[in-house]
Amino acid sequence: xxxxxxYIVTKPIQxxxxxxxxxxxxxxxxxxxxxxxxxxxxxxMENRSKYWDKIFFAESKHKALFNILRxxxxxxxxxxxxxxxxxxRFLLVLLYPVDIYVYEEGLASYASALRxxxxxxxxxxxxxxxxxxxxxxxxxxxRTKGIYLYHPEVFKSIVxxxxxxxxxxxxxxxxxxxxxxxxxxxxxxMEKIDNWRGKNILLYLxxxxxxxxxxxxxxxxxxxxxxxxxxPHIDKNSISTNLHQFDYYPDSTMPAEILISLFIExxxxxxxxxxxxxxxxxxxxxxxxIEYNIASTNYKELYMNIxxxxxxxx
Length: 314
Known about the structure:
The protein folds into two domains: 4-179, Rossmann fold (3-Layer(aba) Sandwich); 188-313, Rossmann fold. 31% of the residues lie in helices and 18% in strands. It is built from eleven helices and eleven strands. The chain has helices spanning 12-18, 38-48, 61-70, 86-94, 124-133, 152-158, 174-180, 214-218, 240-243, 256-266, 297-313; strands spanning 4-9, 27-32, 54-58, 75-80, 99-103, 144-149, 166-169, 201-205, 225-229, 270-274, 289-293. It has a seven-stranded parallel beta sheet, sandwiched between helices. Helix 8 (214-218) links the parallel strand 8 and strand 9. Helix 3 (61-70) runs parallel beside helix 4 (86-94) and helix 6 packs across helix 11 (297-313). The longest helix is centred in the last third of the chain and has 17 residues, at 297-313. The relative contact order is 0.12.
C-alpha cells in the first residue's frame, strides 16, 4: 500500500504554507481547534479543497499526533509547524521511522534559541533536553529530517545547524502562493475596500491580545481609514468594544499577508501597527509602509535582528 503524507495545521497561515510544499504523496491534513472558528475553517476547506485526500479535525496538535501514532504504518512523512516541546519531541521519537519535516511558522523559525536561559552555570535540564531530544530551535529535533523555509539563506546565517539537516525551499514565494490559492479566497473580497483606492489606511495587526499602546498611534492619524486584523487566536466577541473604533475588521482567518498586499496596492499611505508580526517581513523593502512595532523589548529585538537579515538578502 502506498504511504501518505500527513500535515498538521494549527492556524490559517500554516494552511497556506502546508499547500506550498512539493510532495507527490497522497496527502491528509489535520486542522486543530486552536484558533477562532477553526471548526468552520476545517469544514470550509473539506468542502472546497481538492488538494487533500482527507481533512481531519483535532482538538490539538498533540491529539493529532496521538491519532497519527495509532495509524503510523499508513504514513511515510509528517509535516508540522514546530518540533519544540518535551512531549512533542517524545511523540516524534515514537513515530519512528516516519520522516519528520518542519515548515515555516513566523519569527520562531528564524530564532537561534527558543528556550530562555535560566541563570548562570550549567543548565542540566537544557543539557538533558538537548542531548536526548535535539537542539533549542524549531527544527532542531534529531528526528526532524528537514525544514521548509521561504528564506533558507537567512536561516543559515542565524542558526548553527548540522549538515545532515535538509534546509528546503517552498514551491513559490509566499505572496505569490497566497494570492493564487483558491482554497482561501472565500475569506477575502475586494468589494468592501475597493472604494478606498487612493486613500490613507491604518492597519493594526494584533498579537494574541489587544495591546493598549496602539491607541496613542491610532490617535496620530485621525483622518485615516482604520482597520484591525485580529490574531486568529482571538475571539472577536471577547473584544467587541475595541472593534467599534475601526471601520473594518476582516475575518481573522484571512492571512495578514493578503490584507497588506491589497492595501499596498490601493492605499496612498499605509500605516501598520504590529507586535513583531512575521507577516511584515515579507514587505521589508516597501516604501509605502509606515511601521510601528509595539512588541515587548525582547521580542522587538528578535524581530529587528531577523528583519536586518531579510533586508540584506534583498
